[in-house]
Design goal:
Layout lengths: L13 H4 L4 H13 L2 H7 L4 H15 L4 E4 L2 E4 L1 H28 L4 E7 L1 H18 L3 E7 L2 H9 L5 E4 L10 E16 L12 H4 L4 E3 L5 H12 L8 E3 L3 H10 L4 E4 H9 L7 E3 L7 E10 L6 H13 L4
Parallel strand pairs: 3-4, 3-5, 7-8
Antiparallel strand pairs: 1-2, 5-11, 6-9, 6-10, 6-11
Helix pairs in contact: 2-3, 2-4, 2-5, 3-4, 6-11, 6-12
C-alpha cells in the first residue's frame, strides 16, 4: 500500500507533536519480535514497568489499542502490527543512515565530480573509474569532459571537485593548486584505408594535400598544430573544418580522406577499439608534436571531502612521479 500523507499540513508530524519518542518505537518493534513485554523491555534495556508505561503512553497518542494480553504473552492488534511495521522501517533507515555516514567519512561513499580534457579522461580517469567500481562501488562519479577554460570556470563555481587539464591565462593562479602531470602528445590520424597509409615514409607535405579536421580557431590544440607546421617550414592546411567534437572528428576521418590531429591517448584508444566507421590509423609522423603540459588542478586551500580524497589518491597512483 502506498504511503498516504495527511492532506491537511497541520496534521503532519502529529505523533511527534504529541510526544512520540524513539524508545517507544524500539519497544513496539521489539514487542512484535518477542511477543512478551518482559523480553521486549530487556531488548531495549529498560524495566518491565517502564515498558508498560511507554506502551500505555503510545496507545494514548495513537488513540488505538496496540496489543492484547494472554497467558503466553501479548498479541499485537491490527493497529499494533501496522505501527510496529512502520517503527521497524524507521529504525532500519536510521541504522542505514548511520552506516552511510560512516562510509562517507571513510571516503567509501559520496559523489565526486571530476573534470578532464579528452586525453586524460581516457588515459587516467577511465582506469580509476574501473578500479572504483570494484573497490568502492558506493562512490558515485560524475565526469565532465570539456576544454580547460570551461573546466576551470566550473571548478571556481564549485561545480567540480577537481579537474585534469590546463590553467587558462585569465584565471588567477592563486585561486588553485596544481600538480603537474606532463605534456599531451598529439598524433595525426586518418582512416585505415587512407592513401597515406600506403606511403613509406609519409611527409608532412603529403598530408597538406588533404582536408584537415581541427579545433575551431583559437583552440589550444589547433594553435599547437599550426605552430608546429610553421616552425617546421610548412604552410597551414588550405581546407580546414573546425569542430571541437571528438565524435564528429572521428566520424569525418573514418568516412573521408580528411586528416585530424588528436590527442594520442584518444587516437590510440579508438584505433585499438576498432573505431567508428571501420577504424582509424595513426600516421608515423610528427611524433614530437605535443600540447603544453596539463595538471591535476584543485581549488587552493581546500580540503577534499573523504570520497574526493579517495579518488584523488587513486588518480595520483596513475600519474608519473614528479
Amino acid at each position: 500500500m502506498p504511503d498516504r500523507l495527511p492532506e491537511d499540513p497541520s496534521r503532519r508530524d502529529e505523533l511527534l507533536r504529541r510526544g512520540l519518542r524513539l524508545p517507544q518505537l524500539r519497544l513496539l518493534a521489539a514487542l512484535a519480535e518477542t511477543g512478551r513485554i518482559s523480553a521486549a523491555a530487556a531488548q531495549v534495556a529498560i524495566t518491565q514497568p517502564a515498558a508498560s508505561r511507554l506502551l500505555a503512553e503510545l496507545e494514548r497518542m495513537v488513540e488505538a489499542k496496540l496489543y492484547d494480553r494472554h497467558a503466553r504473552g501479548v498479541t499485537l492488534t491490527d493497529a499494533g502490527r501496522l505501527l510496529a511495521a512502520r517503527a521497524a522501517i524507521v529504525l532500519r533507515q536510521l541504522d542505514q543512515g548511520h552506516v552511510e555516514i560512516q562510509e562517507m567519512t571513510r571516503g567509501a561513499r559520496g559523489l565526486v565530480r571530476i573534470g578532464a580534457v579528452t586525453g586524460p579522461a581516457l588515459e587516467i580517469v577511465v582506469p580509476v573509474i574501473r578500479e572504483l567500481r570494484v573497490t568502492y562501488p558506493e562512490i558515485e562519479i560524475a565526469v565532465q569532459v570539456d576544454t580547460s577554460d570551461k573546466l576551470a570556470d566550473q571548478l571556481l563555481k564549485l561545480e567540480l571537485d577537481f579537474y585534469i587539464g590546463r590553467l587558462p591565462e585569465e584565471v588567477d593562479a592563486r585561486a588553485v593548486s596544481m600538480r603537474p602531470i606532463g605534456p599531451e602528445p598529439v598524433s595525426l590520424v586518418v582512416r585505415r584505408e587512407h592513401p597515406l597509409t600506403r606511403r613509406d615514409p609519409v611527409l608532412l607535405t603529403d598530408c597538406l594535400a588533404f582536408d584537415w579536421v581541427m579545433q575551431p580557431p583559437g583552440g589550444l590544440q589547433r594553435r599547437t598544430v599550426e605552430s608546429y607546421l610553421l616552425e617546421t617550414g610548412n604552410p597551414l592546411p588550405r581546407r580546414i573544418l573546425g569542430t571541437s567534437s571528438v565524435l564528429l572528428t572521428l566520424a569525418l576521418i573514418s568516412n573521408t580522406n580528411a586528416i585530424a590531429p588528436l590527442s594520442r591517448a584518444v587516437a590510440t584508444f579508438y584505433a585499438g577499439a576498432g573505431g567508428p566507421g571501420g577504424g582509424i590509423h595513426l600516421l608515423s609522423i610528427a611524433d614530437e608534436m605535443a600540447v603544453t603540459p596539463f595538471s591535476l588542478i584543485r581549488r587552493a586551500g581546500e580540503t577534499a571531502s573523504p570520497p574526493a580524497a579517495r579518488v584523488l589518491g587513486l588518480i595520483e597512483r596513475q600519474l608519473p612521479p614528479l
